[in-house]
Amino acid sequence: MKxxxxxxxxxxxxxxxxxxxxxSLTLVVKDVPAQxxxxxxxxxxxxxxxxxxxxxxxxxxxxxxxxxxREYTAA
Length: 75
Prior knowledge:
The protein is of the alpha+beta class. The protein has one helix at residues 47-62, and strands at residues 11-22, 25-37, 43-44, 67-71. Strands 1, 2, 3 and 4 form a 4-stranded mixed beta sheet that branches. The longest helix has 16 residues, at 47-62.
């Protein structure tokens, strides 16, 4: 797909590091599957993966986690 940020590069399969913050929680997830722009490096995560990340953050927040770094694992 064409990058919507730079409008010049095409995206290729790759990985991203996603940081989610909410109130006192900071969750860093590495090696998240993403489409990455070959020109500017913008990262796009699909809807299913995004929902899984949000669910993971919700669980961490409920458990009282303040800071956590994890490697992505598919559901």
